[in-house]
Amino acid sequence: MKKRALAGRKPTSKAQNAMISFDFANVSYQIDPNRRKVYHRWIEVETAKTCQIMGAWSQAQSSQKAV
Length: 67
Prior knowledge:
Strand content: 25-35%
Radius of gyration: 18 Å
Number of helices: 2
Distance between the termini: 54 Å
Helix content: 40-55%
């Protein structure tokens, strides 16, 4: 019965857990774009700074795609 239950399941779509390294104001941060979180030395950064860093990262991404 367990085999039948497993066969009927859809494969889980796990999001890629890709952490991105990004330098902002001469400090290295790790960005998790799936969770929209920013870490510095693996400690979560405060919300206001996260918004600032994510905005800068998004602009850098859009300018790279435009080239």
